[in-house]
Design goal:
The protein is 47% helix and 10% strand. The protein is α+β, with helices and mostly antiparallel strands and 506 residues long. It folds into three domains: 90 residues, Rubredoxin-like (Ribbon), CATH 2.10.290; 186 residues, no CATH class; 200 residues, no CATH class. Strands 8-9-10-11-12 form a five-stranded antiparallel beta sheet. A hairpin with a 4-residue loop joins strand 11 and strand 12. 32% of the residues are buried.
Length: 506
Amino acid sequence: MYCRNCDYSLWNIPGRQCPECGDAFLPSEYEFKPGAVKFCCPDCSQQYYGTSYKGHLRPNEFDCVECGRHLEMDEMTLLPAEGWDEHSVGSATSPWVRPNKGLIKRWFCTVGWSYVNPRGLIAGIPVSSGVGGSFGFFMITQCLIGLVGIALPVLLFTIIIGLSTPRGGIGLAGLSATLLPSLLVVSGSIFVAILWGLLIHATLALTGGTAHSVGRTMSSVFFASGTLAGQAVPCVGPYCLGYIVGVWWVVSTILMVMESQKVSGLRASLAVLWPPLLTLVVAVSLYALFIYTAINSTTTAMNQMQFGRVATGTSNGFTTALISRSASSSVTPASPVDILRDSEGLRLDFASLLLGGELFDQSDLLLGDDAFDFSTQSGVPLDRRIAALQAAEVPTAEEDPDRQAFSIGQVVYCLPEQPWSEVKDDPALWFMVAFQFSAQNIEIGRSWAFTLWVSFANGNTYNMYFSTNSEFVEALDVQDQVRADVGLSPIKDMMLELYERLTKQP
């Protein structure tokens, strides 16, 4: 038992003032281990032992059995009991409540105790001190983390960037951007700590009760937060030490709750651990739900991308125009030639796709079983090539009801003359596809390595990469199932035949 102002030993002192500095003290302001301190009658030195959980006399007011004097605990002389020394009889005074030390020194010492001696830290805080002191320590710690650990590096970076600009400086907006993360960190930490402390105390109250009020539990949480001080190290703290000191905070809180509320390690662990564990489970579950929803919102078309990787998922201008034309007429074009006979924009886009556009440069165009060989007519103007294709005779749906796809060049038109209301917005159904080959791969005999440009009925376009024939066949099987679900015939055989034609070596 030491003076909280000057650390002078107060054992065996009859008076109630420190002989060193003159500060008043009372034995009831200190806590001891049960049975470790003997309280002596001032008149006859009769000894009594403190047996309460604080090591105090029970009752604290009575008549001396030896001399009959009426005694109060705070007027008795205190000595360590036999077998105890003055350093081990009770809880040392925590550095945070030592007024003879400056604020900075008290903060650093308290942080150190939160790491290495959390039980001693909370035991050395008088129960009567309330929660104000611990909350002050918590706020200082969080402000240092926010300002030094987060705001300072951001501010320095912002200043450097600002000075490199012609106008220089960071301005009000830059300063706000610097302080906003710190404000969010401090506010979030306050909310988390208070909610956590309330949940801990409620759990303890429901599982057997507590020795003290909720304020003592909140003090445990606040003082244990000293372990978070490592996050105040600029740059390194918030990003590298966050998980380590976070776990340390939990461990220190468990030990402090054990000491402050006089509960078992099991009860303290249960009360302290379930809120963060539940939060972790909820976070993981929400993330898993997000992933599951994202996967399921992707369609069979995206599932087909397991055979390759998606190169683009944006709407193609030609696909958009084709969908617009189908929507306006309530039916898809009857054939590729029908598209070439359409309006100027759609006709030119499709001709560009066929005759050396962005996707490939193929001079030998195949329409059904008819071939249009332009390999010897490289100088033929585009409009004359289009005219030749426009003149092709293509059977109508009445003449050939079984034909539900056309190949032309390296392009396959998959939805001829289909009611638009039955196929529109289908994210899995192929509208038009085009083969894209690497000339280098074909030359060295690896003709199976290619890309399939796919336009879907919902307007999306993707590049599907295939490295083996089996991958391509599997993708065709999936697409034929999609077509069967909407009453369309399969296209697998046509696609494989066209593939063989396009990859046939001279």
